[in-house]
User: Fold this.
Amino acid sequence: MRGKQRNLRFQKKNEYFFDYSLLFIVLFLLGFGLIMIYSASSYEASMSSLTNNDPMYYLKKQAVASVLGLIAMFVVSRIPYHFWERFAILSYLVSAVLLLLVLTPLGYEANGARRWLRLGFSIQPAEIAKLAMILFLASMICHMGKTMRTGKGFWTILCIPLPICLMVWKITDNMSSAIIILGIAVLMLFVASPDYKRFLVLGGIGGAAVAVFVFALTQMESLQNLGFRSARILAWLDPESDPLDKGFQPLQSLYAIGSGGIFGKGLGQSIQKLEFLPESHNDMIFSIICEELGLFGGISIIMMFVLLIWRFMIIANNAADLFGALLVVGVMGHIAIQVILNIAVVTNTIPNTGISLPFISYGGSSVMFLMIEIGLVLSVARGIRLQEKL
Assistant:
């Protein structure tokens, strides 16, 4: 009898884990993003008839998307994450169909790219594809089990995202999102596979191929018929060689970062946002952060993302099962890769490519699906049981 009572007392001490630190970081980034979107876009919005000369136009739209995202996050966080496993294949197929719909009259062009759908509301299929890929790969890796450790299993998992990556790249002309989706797949496979030699070989081949391509590009005598991306690569190597076209945005971004100094010019005091820096409230918002809040502000935001990744790692390491751990790793990979690429573009470390800064850049579809991903992570965290020994 005493043994049973002791057992009941032990069970009462079992508690479910909720990561308040993760929630606080996400809320901080969302709130900070709204402030910076208003700061970076108010002048442009007030001068444009497309926004009815409303300086708060972009802020209002992002605020609505953020609120909807928060609601979606809390709903998803309350649903056991294994519920979504049954929709893994369906999500993959739906993402492919939505990408194809961009070619139909439902697709429309904005900012020189046809990447969006009108379905009663505006949505970017590439954002859905990222979430669908995380869910599908987590399910596939768990179902394959030890088969994944064989060469056939390894290459099967690695080839799964390729059709979606090609569709994102060719249909929506969004190479950066295609790279992110492939990066998510590689990271999830890296975590699940014990054979790291294959990744070293793949990394070496990929790095060598990129180096050879860039070298060949710089040796070309005729540069007249270069493609758009090839011209961007050359502008990355020497932005001052084309300061009024391909090198314009990188140079203006570096001017913004450099003029901010240590503590910046002050919130709202940016000069580059006055139509000097294109996409100042979107892809280049980190430049405005550095200009207005200085190196201190830029490093502080980077540290917040580092803390976010750290919380993901804690949850993944303590997840109740492999499926939950892989979901968290997929979300971690998505956000980490996107942050690294965005800051690398802004600082001209890599060639310019359109990629937003998670939670901070303007974009309704992006913030909505990021919040759904955070909801999945919180759902996995709720599956972690804390036990207090008596």
Observations:
- The CA atoms of residues 41 and 321 lie 44 Å apart.
